[in-house]
Predict the 3D structure of the following.
Amino acid sequence: MIEFVLTPATATVIFVIACFAGYRYRHVWKTEGPRWQLWVYGVIAAAALLTLGFVPMQG
């Protein structure tokens, strides 16, 4: 059986990606940019945060 775990370095990279995507989402939202960019950045941020929330870290 394959077990998925995140190393601390991988979790940090995913967290930085989530922060960047969330920042870009807010920027596009405030400037009323294209809707497709809202979806792209929103999905990336959501996927990254869900991954951090539900995949266990290596201890």
Observations:
- The longest helix spans residues 8-30.
- Residues 9 and 58 are 10 Å apart (CA to CA).
